[in-house]
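Wed. Picked up where I left off yesterday with N-acetyltransferase domain-containing protein. The coffee machine is broken again, so keeping this brief.
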Amino acid sequence: MEGTTFTVYRLLDMTEQEMGQALDLYTRTFTGDTYFKAKLGGDFSLLPILGRASLRAALLEGYVYAAIEDKHSDRIISMGIWFAPGTRPFATEAQRSLGYEDWLKKLSPEAVNWNKHTVSDVKKRLLEPMFTAEELRKGWWCSSLFTDIDHRRKGCARAIVNKVAKRASDANEFLALITSLSNVLNYEAMGFEQRGTYILPTLFGDIALYVLTRDDKKDQTHTHRDRLTS
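Structure written out below (C-alpha coordinates, as returned):
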Protein backbone atom coordinates (compact mmCIF):
# COMPACT_ATOMS: atom_id res chain seq x y z
CA MET A 1 0.00 0.00 0.00
CA GLU A 2 3.05 2.27 -0.03
CA GLY A 3 2.57 5.29 -2.25
CA THR A 4 -1.23 5.30 -2.03
CA THR A 5 -2.72 8.69 -2.85
CA PHE A 6 -6.21 9.85 -2.05
CA THR A 7 -8.53 12.85 -2.13
CA VAL A 8 -10.91 13.97 0.61
CA TYR A 9 -14.45 14.93 -0.35
CA ARG A 10 -17.49 16.03 1.56
CA LEU A 11 -20.33 13.70 0.57
CA LEU A 12 -23.73 15.35 0.18
CA ASP A 13 -25.36 12.04 -0.73
CA MET A 14 -24.25 8.45 -1.21
CA THR A 15 -25.00 5.81 -3.80
CA GLU A 16 -25.98 2.38 -2.54
CA GLN A 17 -22.53 1.15 -3.61
CA GLU A 18 -20.84 3.87 -1.55
CA MET A 19 -23.11 3.12 1.40
CA GLY A 20 -22.20 -0.55 1.16
CA GLN A 21 -18.48 0.24 1.20
CA ALA A 22 -18.91 2.63 4.10
CA LEU A 23 -20.89 0.12 6.15
CA ASP A 24 -18.35 -2.62 5.48
CA LEU A 25 -15.59 -0.30 6.68
CA TYR A 26 -17.67 0.86 9.67
CA THR A 27 -18.47 -2.71 10.69
CA ARG A 28 -14.90 -3.97 10.37
CA THR A 29 -13.61 -1.02 12.38
CA PHE A 30 -16.02 -1.11 15.31
CA THR A 31 -16.81 -4.80 15.75
CA GLY A 32 -15.49 -5.75 19.18
CA ASP A 33 -15.15 -2.14 20.34
CA THR A 34 -16.04 -1.75 24.03
CA TYR A 35 -18.15 1.39 23.58
CA PHE A 36 -20.08 -0.06 20.65
CA LYS A 37 -20.63 -3.26 22.60
CA ALA A 38 -22.44 -1.17 25.20
CA LYS A 39 -24.32 0.84 22.58
CA LEU A 40 -25.49 -2.33 20.82
CA GLY A 41 -26.38 -4.18 23.98
CA GLY A 42 -23.71 -6.72 23.05
CA ASP A 43 -25.28 -7.59 19.69
CA PHE A 44 -22.76 -6.64 17.00
CA SER A 45 -25.08 -7.91 14.26
CA LEU A 46 -26.90 -4.59 14.71
CA LEU A 47 -23.78 -2.56 13.88
CA PRO A 48 -24.54 -2.12 10.13
CA ILE A 49 -28.04 -0.90 10.97
CA LEU A 50 -26.62 1.71 13.35
CA GLY A 51 -23.97 2.66 10.81
CA ARG A 52 -26.51 3.25 8.06
CA ALA A 53 -28.70 5.31 10.39
CA SER A 54 -25.66 7.36 11.49
CA LEU A 55 -24.55 8.08 7.94
CA ARG A 56 -28.04 9.00 6.76
CA ALA A 57 -28.52 11.32 9.74
CA ALA A 58 -25.20 13.05 9.06
CA LEU A 59 -25.94 13.41 5.35
CA LEU A 60 -29.16 15.17 6.33
CA GLU A 61 -28.00 17.48 9.11
CA GLY A 62 -24.28 16.90 9.63
CA TYR A 63 -21.11 16.43 7.60
CA VAL A 64 -19.78 13.24 6.02
CA TYR A 65 -16.23 13.27 4.68
CA ALA A 66 -14.58 10.45 2.77
CA ALA A 67 -11.00 9.81 1.68
CA ILE A 68 -11.23 8.14 -1.72
CA GLU A 69 -8.26 6.36 -3.23
CA ASP A 70 -7.11 8.12 -6.42
CA LYS A 71 -6.11 4.89 -8.14
CA HIS A 72 -9.59 3.44 -7.64
CA SER A 73 -11.93 6.41 -7.81
CA ASP A 74 -14.82 4.54 -6.24
CA ARG A 75 -12.95 3.10 -3.25
CA ILE A 76 -13.55 4.70 0.15
CA ILE A 77 -10.59 4.15 2.47
CA SER A 78 -11.47 6.47 5.37
CA MET A 79 -14.56 8.31 6.62
CA GLY A 80 -15.49 10.93 9.20
CA ILE A 81 -18.93 11.80 10.54
CA TRP A 82 -19.18 15.26 12.10
CA PHE A 83 -21.84 17.57 13.50
CA ALA A 84 -21.47 21.34 13.51
CA PRO A 85 -22.41 23.61 16.42
CA GLY A 86 -26.12 23.54 17.11
CA THR A 87 -26.57 19.98 15.83
CA ARG A 88 -25.84 16.53 17.19
CA PRO A 89 -26.49 12.92 16.16
CA PHE A 90 -30.13 11.84 16.16
CA ALA A 91 -31.21 15.07 17.86
CA THR A 92 -34.14 15.70 15.53
CA GLU A 93 -37.12 13.65 14.44
CA ALA A 94 -35.95 14.01 10.84
CA GLN A 95 -32.65 12.31 11.71
CA ARG A 96 -34.24 9.63 13.88
CA SER A 97 -36.67 8.70 11.11
CA LEU A 98 -33.77 7.60 8.87
CA GLY A 99 -33.20 4.26 10.60
CA TYR A 100 -32.44 5.16 14.21
CA GLU A 101 -35.91 4.36 15.54
CA ASP A 102 -35.91 1.03 13.69
CA TRP A 103 -32.51 0.24 15.22
CA LEU A 104 -33.74 1.07 18.73
CA LYS A 105 -36.62 -1.39 18.33
CA LYS A 106 -34.11 -4.21 17.92
CA LEU A 107 -32.33 -3.48 21.20
CA SER A 108 -33.13 -4.90 24.62
CA PRO A 109 -35.04 -2.58 26.99
CA GLU A 110 -31.86 -2.21 29.05
CA ALA A 111 -29.82 -1.14 26.01
CA VAL A 112 -32.53 1.31 24.94
CA ASN A 113 -32.50 2.91 28.38
CA TRP A 114 -28.69 3.15 28.29
CA ASN A 115 -28.72 4.85 24.89
CA LYS A 116 -31.60 7.21 25.62
CA HIS A 117 -30.84 8.14 29.22
CA THR A 118 -27.56 6.94 30.74
CA VAL A 119 -25.27 8.37 28.04
CA SER A 120 -26.93 11.79 27.95
CA ASP A 121 -27.21 12.02 31.75
CA VAL A 122 -23.51 11.25 32.23
CA LYS A 123 -22.47 13.70 29.51
CA LYS A 124 -24.54 16.47 31.07
CA ARG A 125 -23.11 15.78 34.53
CA LEU A 126 -19.47 15.06 33.70
CA LEU A 127 -18.63 16.18 30.15
CA GLU A 128 -20.40 19.51 29.77
CA PRO A 129 -18.66 21.09 32.83
CA MET A 130 -15.36 20.66 30.96
CA PHE A 131 -16.45 23.46 28.61
CA THR A 132 -17.57 27.04 29.04
CA ALA A 133 -21.04 28.05 27.89
CA GLU A 134 -19.51 29.69 24.83
CA GLU A 135 -17.49 26.58 24.01
CA LEU A 136 -20.58 24.41 24.19
CA ARG A 137 -21.99 26.55 21.39
CA LYS A 138 -18.87 26.35 19.21
CA GLY A 139 -17.83 22.71 19.08
CA TRP A 140 -17.71 20.56 15.96
CA TRP A 141 -18.16 17.08 17.39
CA CYS A 142 -16.80 13.99 15.68
CA SER A 143 -19.32 11.17 15.82
CA SER A 144 -17.10 8.59 14.09
CA LEU A 145 -13.75 8.49 12.32
CA PHE A 146 -12.70 5.20 10.75
CA THR A 147 -10.06 4.04 8.28
CA ASP A 148 -9.40 0.84 6.36
CA ILE A 149 -6.78 -1.18 8.23
CA ASP A 150 -4.47 -1.31 5.19
CA HIS A 151 -4.48 2.51 4.92
CA ARG A 152 -3.95 3.49 8.54
CA ARG A 153 -1.05 5.79 9.42
CA LYS A 154 -0.97 7.09 5.86
CA GLY A 155 -2.62 10.45 6.59
CA CYS A 156 -6.20 9.62 5.56
CA ALA A 157 -7.89 10.38 8.88
CA ARG A 158 -5.60 13.38 9.44
CA ALA A 159 -6.62 14.82 6.05
CA ILE A 160 -10.30 14.49 6.95
CA VAL A 161 -9.69 16.12 10.33
CA ASN A 162 -7.78 18.96 8.68
CA LYS A 163 -10.68 19.63 6.29
CA VAL A 164 -13.12 19.95 9.18
CA ALA A 165 -10.62 21.94 11.27
CA LYS A 166 -10.30 24.52 8.47
CA ARG A 167 -14.07 24.93 8.34
CA ALA A 168 -14.26 25.26 12.11
CA SER A 169 -11.33 27.68 12.33
CA ASP A 170 -12.82 29.94 9.66
CA ALA A 171 -15.93 30.24 11.83
CA ASN A 172 -13.91 30.80 15.04
CA GLU A 173 -14.97 27.36 16.26
CA PHE A 174 -13.11 24.19 17.27
CA LEU A 175 -13.14 20.40 17.01
CA ALA A 176 -14.07 18.00 19.81
CA LEU A 177 -14.39 14.27 20.23
CA ILE A 178 -14.68 11.47 22.75
CA THR A 179 -12.50 8.37 22.51
CA SER A 180 -10.88 5.56 24.46
CA LEU A 181 -7.33 5.51 25.80
CA SER A 182 -6.05 3.39 22.90
CA ASN A 183 -6.81 6.20 20.44
CA VAL A 184 -5.56 9.19 22.44
CA LEU A 185 -2.02 9.23 21.03
CA ASN A 186 -3.35 8.99 17.46
CA TYR A 187 -5.56 12.03 17.97
CA GLU A 188 -2.83 13.97 19.74
CA ALA A 189 -0.67 13.39 16.65
CA MET A 190 -3.45 15.09 14.66
CA GLY A 191 -3.27 18.20 16.82
CA PHE A 192 -5.82 17.38 19.53
CA GLU A 193 -5.26 18.07 23.21
CA GLN A 194 -6.79 16.29 26.17
CA ARG A 195 -9.58 18.26 27.83
CA GLY A 196 -10.54 15.70 30.46
CA THR A 197 -11.76 12.19 31.22
CA TYR A 198 -14.91 10.66 32.63
CA ILE A 199 -16.30 7.24 33.48
CA LEU A 200 -19.31 5.93 31.59
CA PRO A 201 -21.14 3.03 33.28
CA THR A 202 -22.43 0.34 30.90
CA LEU A 203 -24.19 -2.99 31.09
CA PHE A 204 -20.78 -4.63 30.66
CA GLY A 205 -18.73 -2.57 33.09
CA ASP A 206 -17.41 0.98 33.33
CA ILE A 207 -15.59 2.61 30.40
CA ALA A 208 -13.00 5.37 30.76
CA LEU A 209 -13.53 7.96 28.03
CA TYR A 210 -11.21 10.79 27.01
CA VAL A 211 -12.39 14.18 25.74
CA LEU A 212 -10.07 15.89 23.26
CA THR A 213 -10.24 19.21 21.43
CA ARG A 214 -8.38 20.93 18.61
CA ASP A 215 -8.61 24.69 18.27
CA ASP A 216 -6.65 25.95 15.26
CA LYS A 217 -7.96 29.48 15.74
CA LYS A 218 -6.33 29.60 19.18
CA ASP A 219 -3.02 28.46 17.68
CA GLN A 220 -3.24 31.15 15.00
CA THR A 221 -3.92 33.80 17.65
CA HIS A 222 -0.91 32.69 19.65
CA THR A 223 1.31 32.78 16.55
CA HIS A 224 0.11 36.31 15.75
CA ARG A 225 0.86 37.44 19.29
CA ASP A 226 4.29 35.83 19.16
CA ARG A 227 5.11 37.76 16.02
CA LEU A 228 3.99 41.02 17.62
CA THR A 229 6.17 40.47 20.67
CA SER A 230 9.24 39.04 18.94
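Quick read: The chain has one domain: 6-229.
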